[in-house]
What does this fold into?
Amino acid sequence: MGTTPALRVIAAGACLRSLIRSMPGDVIISVKNVSKAYRIWSSPSARLGSPCTAAAAALFPRSSAPHLALTARAARGYRDFHALNDVSFEIRRGEATGIIGRNGSGKSTLLQLIAGTLAVTSGSLQVNGRVSALLELGSGFNPEFTGRENVFLNGSIYGLSRAEMARRFDEIAAFADIGDFIDQPVKTYSSGMMMRLAFAVAVSVQPDILIVDEALSVGDVFFTQKCFQRIREIVHRGATLIFVSHDTGSVQNLCDRGLLLSQGKLVHDGAPEDCVSRYFNLHQPTTASAAGPVAAGRHAPVATELRAALLAANILPAAKSRHGDRKLELIAAAVLDGHGAATWDFELLHRATIRVLFKAHAPIALPSVGLQLHDRMGNLLFAAGNSQLRFPLPPLAAGEEIMLDFRVTLTAQAGLYTLSLDAAEADPSDPNVGTFHDRVGGLGPLSVAHHAAGVLPFYGAAQLPLEISYA
It folds into this structure.
């Protein structure tokens, strides 16, 4: 017999409460060698026959021939698919952790394990605190109940009394801002209205752990901004955030730590910027670009004097992070002012030159080099490279070098910025993606200042081309 989403979440709440136990220090979530496997049956008949065969095998001693034969026969009817495989990490109280990965990497499975709606296949998972989770849109809501009734239903799931939810109801209704629909059945709601109410309830229960899984992607821009502001307030009060999104900018903006999943495994745990760069590096070109010999590059040789001067001013050793196989390696880089002097200090609207020397250690058919600027909060301000500038680079044979100058006018607001550089091989089937061979992050800080008197040339994050005339 089936169960409603509300009943499934109630059962999950009971399961979660059984998982809550004390843990040392400020660790609020502990995941140790966790795997989650799903059994994939070879046929409908195998779904019935294999368990019966396995049960028959259990009637014999484990080392006996009948037991081994029946066990092997039962195993032929299925295979195990591991949505998660040997994942381990800890999250401390007050951390904001973003989880990213491609579709099917295990993100949602991991969140459901933490929320208590799934059980682990192996390993241990401990949670210490009240969890409020926005997982599948509408989970925990009974479609036949009104929005008001579902608010109280969810309150009981979170262990709050009806009187407590009654005190919080006006705040929930005001935040959701769905008007008279609060007294209409949830089955009449749009996906946006459903998300509004679900988020309003989730943040109203003052959770120790707030889990958000892509739910905000269905809201309008104004409500999404309001949600992000509320999430920041919750984290500022000391709650723990686990945020899953394909919007890498939001992950970098909200989170101070990132986890990267790929094919059910945790492949990186570190700064959100590092996770995002490695996330893009998971892409593999659909066409082998180095299947045959690469023609020699047709570009000017690197001048010996310029190379020596660049190596002397090289900023790469001071990078905060670096990864890649370095088949196309960034050898040296420097930031230069209008007079060619190395500096990190610039005036607003002045031009900076980023000089980069890179070298191929293997044949590279479609070399690509680019830069990124991040603001002090880690938000990506700007990213571009030779592809965006319509400046194709020639194929490189192993041992060849190229030196490039990127010239950028600093039309960003006054402040401090960090610089990242990458060397990649473009995908011939899609010019917007490729394989990153060398990524260097956390260079700087680059200072943009405004010392001139008078009216500022613009307000906001960056200057856009703007003209004015009489109509």
